[in-house]
Design goal:
The structure is a homodimer. Chain A contains 11 helices and 13 strands. Chain A has about 350 residues and is an alpha/beta fold. In chain A, the strands form 2 sheets. Chain A has a 7-stranded mixed sheet with strand order 4-3-2-1-5-6-7, sandwiched between helices. The radius of gyration of chain A is 21 Å and the shape is globular. Chains A and B meet through α1, α4, β7, α5 and β13 of A and α1, α4, β7, α5 and β13 of B. β13 of chain A pairs antiparallel with β13 of chain B, so a sheet runs across the interface.
């Protein structure tokens, strides 16, 4: 049995879902992967919990962020450095929300953890968008893992496939439906429902946020495209390198026209290589029925990698709720520690 | 730079393609993964080549099996044990064709290599169908890797996703179009071409073998389903546990009827869990347009994993030529040695 210390940074929706997944899978992790994950600390902005075995605390599974200070082991003002000093080295699970431009506050925490020889499993996109290549290099230098499935599609294992399954092939392009909210809206528009009404429905169902700008303007797609392109190609594109057009200027007539012709309009993120130059773009595109992503409807997501030796490889999936992100974080940790074939 | 010794077992179509991929990717492997693969031996049934750096031999890229004895370092009668004695430990790349029932001759070679602390990347299905679970356990005990992407879909990274990307989730079922030949034939039948004519076309185009029984009777699909189910669930199903029906009894009228209704008939391999009992089956199935594998036409393959925490995850791809299998072998080796994030 291999014990591994886990420090959880952030106790929002993803952090809580991760805790619940840890509770639910404890015995399976032991049996199948010979792995015992010991949750040693939970850090929030007001302080943290530090204890030998947080998972054994009875009310943990139902705890909200407000309940954490009432749990056993709470220390007001406890910070990451204190914890890294006191706990045997393991994995930092980062579940903050962070700025896409600066990557903060998560970026600084991740840097400190990597520099001190901790593995990191990241769920927020900011640090990857701001400094993905640099973080991968830092991890390599420190001889630790930096993984981020929870930040790059969660239940769509795009980073896994792009980095590991296609290793040894050259990725010459990619094309993805990377944002569930816009895809849901477009699917409803395809059924004849106007944009505003489809958006309102998405908000009502908890699919779209109250401020849906990041989704419908294409920014979320651009960030995911940027992160995936950088990690798969080991490139260093910036967000400003991505040409972005969202779905807000699409007219109902355009969508209806596509539907009449048996086609669909989708918001595609694209990495293309033209005459040796790589270009990143996000824009609505008309897909014909034969297109590999034609069937990706509703909140589902999908991505096609174009490669030299393996041809095109398409991945479709997409539970994008916190539980999917939590499962992706867990999968990353198993890959670091568990006995996988 | 990390050097790794490679011993190649078999120099048929896949073995030769693997050698060419090694030649083509040498500099990329060094730059990107810090990895130097040293091809130290090539073994055939009549003897083998043993040399410090086989890849540097000028005519290697064009060599056929008959040319190997003319290359520098040829030793008639050289066997695997001689080579394992003489070469520093590394990875055995198995590219034989072997019996699906007994797994031989590959199985014995793989067992000996694992027992002596060599990693193994396998391309033939026999050993996995005959003793997949046992080989995985042997590798674990020996502390080495046993990987088999080249045997389980090649360019469709089904084993990667099933084992690694879905680690931590529970796979509760899977459904796959796993055989390119039957899918090609069904796609042509869907277009109104009779079975015999579609089969003849597949044979003419090198898609179907001259004896297509294994494909059209569903056996190849059954073997792939068996291997994937066993490795993903760590189960120990036998080929006799799979209920198999091929496509030979499908009438043109049935296919035409599906086409008229906008549906498609596909040969599906299925793992289902019903009331806690897992069942494996292969049979033609009528797919509706919304089905995740509906678009998988021609020689393409596809698989959907149904999971508890990640929902369904679908993978579509499928270059199934020797180059795809060779790329899959290389990917497995990079995963063993290379610096991957």
């Amino acid at each position: 049995m291999r014990p591994a210390a886990v420090v959880l940074l952030g106790f929002g929706r993803v952090g809580r879902a991760f805790t619940r997944v840890l509770l639910d899978t404890r015995s399976r992790l032991r049996e199948r992967y010979g792995l015992q994950l010991k949750l040693r600390a939970i850090l929030t902005s007001r302080g943290g919990l530090l204890a030998e075995d947080i998972l054994s605390q009875p009310r943990l599974g139902e705890a909200s962020r407000e309940d954490v200070p009432a749990l056993s082991g709470w220390r007001p003002g406890l910070g990451l450095d204190d914890v890294l000093d006191k706990v045997e080295r393991g994995v930092l699970v980062e579940c903050l929300s962070s700025d896409l431009g600066t990557g903060e506050p998560a970026l600084g925490f991740i840097r400190r953890a990597l520099a001190r020889g901790w593995h990191v499993a990241a769920a927020s996109k900011g640090p990857l968008a701001a400094a993905g290549k640099n973080l991968m290099e830092s991890a390599r230098r420190a001889g630790v893992f930096f993984r981020f499935s929870g930040a790059t599609g969660a239940a769509l294992p795009a980073a896994d496939v792009g980095i590991r399954s296609l290793a040894g092939s050259q990725v010459i392009g990619l094309e993805g439906i990377l944002n569930g909210t816009t895809n849901f809206i477009l699917t409803r528009m395809q059924e004849g429902i106007p944009f505003e009404q489809a958006l309102a429905e998405a908000q009502r169902r908890g699919i779209a946020e109250s401020d849906p700008g990041r989704d419908v303007e294409g920014l979320d797609t651009a960030v995911k495209l940027l992160i995936l392109s950088n990690v798969v190609l080991e490139a260093d594109f910036k967000l400003s390198d991505v040409k972005v057009e969202g779905i807000t200027r699409l007219s109902p007539a355009q969508v209806a026209q596509a539907a009449r012709e048996g086609k669909k309009i989708k918001l595609l993120g694209r990495l293309e290589t033209k005459e040796g130059v790589q270009a990143l773009s996000v824009a609505p595109a008309v897909l014909e029925p034969g297109h590999p992503l034609f069937q990706v409807d509703g909140v589902e997501k999908g991505i096609t990698f174009f490669t030299d030796t393996m041809g095109p490889v398409t991945l479709i999936g997409g539970r994008s709720d916190p539980r999917g992100a939590a499962a992706a974080l867990l999968k990353d940790i198993i890959g670091m520690y568990g006995r996988l074939t």
